[in-house]
């Protein structure tokens, strides 16, 4: 049958970005081999937790830092490259909320002490 995927060449092969030999990140750099933790999805969960916990401040910064560290160690796959930017946004928003809480605490303390 002409044009059928399992023609004379045999069954279709997966695209090259799904193989370990050609694993690259969004910029084109060679990505490290995925680790066992990446299969369980720990790093993306931490990145999402960083964004979800930003109203609490410090926990968002910690989760974002841990997610980015796991990305640098190579515990994430090519499908999880966006977790790095999600973790960064969680850290930034967590830092802004921490600064806001400190400013509010100083403002309330100065109001109560005068």
Automatic annotation (TrEMBL):
Keywords: Membrane, Transmembrane, Transmembrane helix
Transmembrane regions listed in the UniProt entry: 45-67, 88-113
Segments of skewed composition (Low complexity): 1-10
Keyword presence, Membrane: yes
Region (Disordered): 1-25
Protein name: DUF4190 domain-containing protein
Lineage: Bacteria, Bacillati, Actinomycetota, Actinomycetes, Streptosporangiales
């Amino acid at each position: 049958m002409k044009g059928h995927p399992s023609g004379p060449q045999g069954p279709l092969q997966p695209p090259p970005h799904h193989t370990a030999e050609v694993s690259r990140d969004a910029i084109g750099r060679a990505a490290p081999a995925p680790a066992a933790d990446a299969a369980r999805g720990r790093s993306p969960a931490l990145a999402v937790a960083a964004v979800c916990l930003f109203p609490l401040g410090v926990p968002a910064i910690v989760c974002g830092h841990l997610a980015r560290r796991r990305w640098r160690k190579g515990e994430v796959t090519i499908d999880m490259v966006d977790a790095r930017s999600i973790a960064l946004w969680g850290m930034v928003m967590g830092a802004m909320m921490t600064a806001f809480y400190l400013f509010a605490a100083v403002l309330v303390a100065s109001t109560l002490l005068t």
